[in-house]
Design the sequence.
């Protein structure tokens, strides 16, 4: 049975790759200078979808809520083999917390992408590390969830058999579709973009890029849109009205949590006492630790 | 008693006992309850779990809500979320806290979504304070403090308008209160309403591995990083730890490289530790690692790179090759201890 799968993806700042260039002189992080990347575990979720499609047939749809720039990440998803991508972008979605985000994602799925078998997302995103959007979206969709999946499930036509890794505990569970899975890094190694697809999709454009592009090409917006759609190069872009969103439940209005304060982490300046790496230095160090009773 | 006037701690059950993180939360919950002048309650969902109520009382709970049903014998998302959501709707606590364990992070977002309440993940501190926005002052709010952006920033989050205020809290960062045996409280049995539908997710197999190491209660931790170079060299860490009656830790890079098992990982995605002495060998001190060990009593860093960030938080340092320095340290200790 072919599977209809929806992957939830997020474009995130590359917080795991903090080089000297993005540090400010005071030792804090220049957040604006971080590269924007495909959230790593969302790539694992996409890979899981692609592997399931290879095994059982079907289609993989990637949706992302974010600024217009997130279209880059969706283009990347197409290059890795996604069948269809959708950008949820609207100024009114800005400053959403996990509750408003999950409402928006669920609303898009319910209005336009049902029925489906699987919703796949990374366990957590590396900017907030909350791991909340997956379970909250499952709740909004009214479907069960299996968190921490760490292998591509088997499907017997009626049920998925899924392995979960909870640290100390490993589980194998069964569940009938539709279900939402959150996927761990250990589940697979995401494939690279396919060269042929890269050539094709480098001309993909989302709604925000159409006007400028039409001007450059000397076409009307409608002409360009029709031609992009024809070639499968138009990245669908949905705003609040397109998904019939309740404006009270999106963006900052729909977010019960607010940020009161953000502090940059600065290295504590301690009085570091250095010892030489040679025998004498090491002996002095041990003597000091013994003397101050640090050993017990 | 007015509504919205209790602090709740969800008591997670691990191997038939109250999980350590839930006891830690009772300690913190007690402090917050004192500040707000409200009772502290523990919530148990389980089957045959009544005896655990006394553990919660001993650790500071004034009230225990006990929901018992055979279908709650083992944690599964939907029944637990349903029972807890219903209980919160009925009793209207002001604050609900969960451990940021795999279970807590599966359950809490589901409950928050159903209640349309705010939830902050993986907090490392909780305080009571005020919040000002749009000319309005909110007082006696739960300040939910957590690292974000890979540990590079610390954010303080509030849920000013919506109750309950909910948070998951990282294991190991708060202290377990000293239990007072025989401390009494009010036990409230909660009726369970679950429909007869079969459970959506069925368990086929479950394997539990005992924790290989208990880093949280260790006095001395010797940790190795990627700078150890190989699994063979990592044996030096084990030898040094054994000599000091300490435990073996590792950085994310050392775990990823296969030098040491993930159970030993110290840091934001591993265990948060605060031993008397933390010896960091060949660990550069990425912010994610520092977040898990910087509250150690004394930190000794050994690293070949004098610019390594670990030296920024260390009390003692040796700039040198760990493969030479650690054997010298072992030799010197054998002479002294």
Sequence:
């Amino acid at each position: 049975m072919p599977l209809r799968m929806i992957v939830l993806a997020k474009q995130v700042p590359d917080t795991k790759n903090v080089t000297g260039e993005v540090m400010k002189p005071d030792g804090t992080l220049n957040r604006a200078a971080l590269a924007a990347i495909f959230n790593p575990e969302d790539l694992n979720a996409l890979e899981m979808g692609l592997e399931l499609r290879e095994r059982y047939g079907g289609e993989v749809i990637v949706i992302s809520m974010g600024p217009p720039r997130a279209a880059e990440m969706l283009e990347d998803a197409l290059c890795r083999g996604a069948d269809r991508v959708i950008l949820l972008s609207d100024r009114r979605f800005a400053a959403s917390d996990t509750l408003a985000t999950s409402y928006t994602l669920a609303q898009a799925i319910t209005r336009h992408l049902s029925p489906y078998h699987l919703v796949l997302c990374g366990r957590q995103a590396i900017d907030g590390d909350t791991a909340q959007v997956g379970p909250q979206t499952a709740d909004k969709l009214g479907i069960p969830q299996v968190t921490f999946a760490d292998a591509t499930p088997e499907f017997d036509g009626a049920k998925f058999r899924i392995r979960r890794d909870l640290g100390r505990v490993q589980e194998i569970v069964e569940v009938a579709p539709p279900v939402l899975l959150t996927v761990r890094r250990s589940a697979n190694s995401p494939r690279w973009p396919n060269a042929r697809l890269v050539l094709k999709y480098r001309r993909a454009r989302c709604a925000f890029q159409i006007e400028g592009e039409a001007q450059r090409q000397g076409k009307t917006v409608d002409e360009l849109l029709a031609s992009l759609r024809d070639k499968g190069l138009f990245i669908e872009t949905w705003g609040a009205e397109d998904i019939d969103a309740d404006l009270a439940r999106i963006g900052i209005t729909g977010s019960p949590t607010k940020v009161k304060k953000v502090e940059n982490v600065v290295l504590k300046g301690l009085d570091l006492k250095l010892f030489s790496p040679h025998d004498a230095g090491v002996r002095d160090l041990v003597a000091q630790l013994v003397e101050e009773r640090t050993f017990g | 008693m007015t509504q919205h006037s209790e602090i709740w701690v969800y008591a997670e059950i691990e191997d038939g006992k109250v999980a350590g993180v839930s006891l830690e939360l009772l300690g913190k919950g007690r402090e917050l309850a004192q500040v707000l002048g409200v009772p502290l309650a523990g919530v148990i969902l389980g089957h045959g779990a009544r005896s655990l109520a006394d553990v919660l009382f001993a650790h500071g709970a004034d009230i225990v809500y006990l929901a018992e049903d055979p279908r709650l014998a083992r944690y599964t998302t939907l029944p637990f979320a349903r029972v807890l959501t219903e209980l919160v709707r009925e009793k209207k606590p002001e604050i609900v806290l969960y451990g940021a364990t795999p279970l807590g992070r599966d359950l809490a977002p589901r409950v928050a979504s159903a209640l349309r309440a705010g939830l902050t993940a993986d907090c490392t501190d909780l305080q009571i304070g005020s919040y000002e926005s749009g000319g309005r002052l909110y007082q006696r709010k739960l300040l939910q403090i957590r690292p974000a952006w890979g540990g590079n920033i610390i954010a303080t989050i509030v849920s000013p308008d919506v109750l309950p205020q909910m948070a998951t809290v990282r294991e190991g960062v708060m202290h377990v209160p000293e239990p007072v045996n025989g401390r009494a409280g009010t036990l409230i049995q909660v009726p369970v309403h679950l429909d007869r539908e079969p459970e959506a997710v069925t368990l086929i197999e479950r394997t539990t591995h005992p924790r290989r190491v208990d880093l949280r209660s260790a006095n001395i931790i010797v940790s190795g990083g990627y700078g150890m170079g190989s699994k063979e060299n990592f044996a030096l860490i084990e030898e040094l730890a054994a000599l000091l009656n300490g435990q073996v830790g590792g950085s994310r890079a050392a775990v990823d490289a296969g030098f040491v098992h993930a159970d030993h990982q110290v840091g934001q995605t591993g265990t948060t530790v605060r031993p008397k002495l933390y010896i960091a060998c060949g660990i550069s001190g990425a912010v994610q690692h520092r977040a898990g060990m910087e509250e150690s009593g004394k930190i000794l860093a050994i690293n070949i790179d004098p610019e390594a960030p670990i030296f920024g938080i260390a009390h003692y340092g040796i700039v040198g090759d760990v493969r030479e320095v650690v054997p010298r340290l072992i030799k010197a200790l054998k002479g002294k201890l």
